[in-house]
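Data deposition worksheet. Section B asks for the primary sequence of the deposited chain exactly as it was used as input, without tags or linkers unless they were present during the calculation. Section C holds the resulting structure in token form. Section D is free text for depositor observations; keep each observation to a single sentence. Incomplete worksheets are returned to the depositor.
Section A, Depositor: J.P.
Section B:
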Amino acid sequence: MIKEKLKTHVQKPPVGIHKEIIQLVKIDNEDHLHIILHFSTNIICLAILSGSFFLSKEELVIFNSWVQECFYNLNDSIKAFFILLVTDFFVGFHSTRGWELLIRWGVYNDLGWAPNELIFTIFVCSFPVIIDTCLKFWVFFCLNRLSPSLVVIYHSISEA
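Section C:
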């Protein structure tokens, strides 16, 4: 008797709403599946990169020596130009949009995190400054010992 009363009071949702609920559940499941797939591909890529780093140290040493040879064979003014080009591209005042794009696409979309504007603003304001400081330290400390003329050219180009 009680079961029959409950059956009469509980109504099934209309067919249209039921189909819409099923679609929303499928979309939510697909979103969770994409998050899991992105995370697992990131882990796989990290494992492959670290494995190749640890297993192929000889090749990395050869590549490093080749890059250093190419860099040190360049003219000092061309070296200074490339240093300024790379630093202005990644750290310059105009690179804020690039950092925005990198964070929004690489971190928020790839990892499936919800965008947080406070963290985003703090990162964009502080990370390029940290990179710029490290780069200036490298230019003043390391390059000054290797090539003093390069530092003079770097200063004259950056001041212009």
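Section D:
The two ends are 92 Å apart (CA to CA).
The CA atoms of residues 7 and 114 lie 42 Å apart.
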